[in-house]
Design goal:
Length: 184
Amino acid sequence: MKIAVIKFWDILVSILLFLTGIFLIYDHFFQPNFIDIDYYYHEYALGAIIGFLIIFSVIIRVIIFVNSRNERFVDFDSSDGSVGISDKAMKDFVDRVAYEFSSVKHAQTKVISTKGNLGFILKIKILEGNNILELSQQMQSRIRQSVMSSLGIENVENVSIKVSEIIKKDVSSEDSNDNISLNQ
């Protein structure tokens, strides 16, 4: 509840500051005698400068707010307390496990956490010529095993593999890479 109140006042103050900045710029350029904030310093455009600084600071604040993501953690109870693992750490870990398979050329993981359970959705790009069903079953098994052994998470509910693209093997580029390495 307190966080919602703080966010409300933060947004309200930012809006008021932004409107004040617009008002100061409007006063200087369009209605010079509307208010006398820069009466003594009118030739220096003090009101307009303050207005631009206020608007600039509000824009920077909005950009920082948009770019700052609250990092999510998945918490698990241990014998001595609670352990939290960030979504980003789990995504990176599962991506590394997926890249252990030579046929996987790109992997992107999404972590799904529900009460007491954890799941992963992997979107992968693979090379042609692989049995997709067999590969995905091996990946699911390997990911479950790695998450259990390395992260200590035993309640992996679901590992979904989505093949987004099957990449064609390019024989000519492999031959040109061999030629390059031989010439060096």
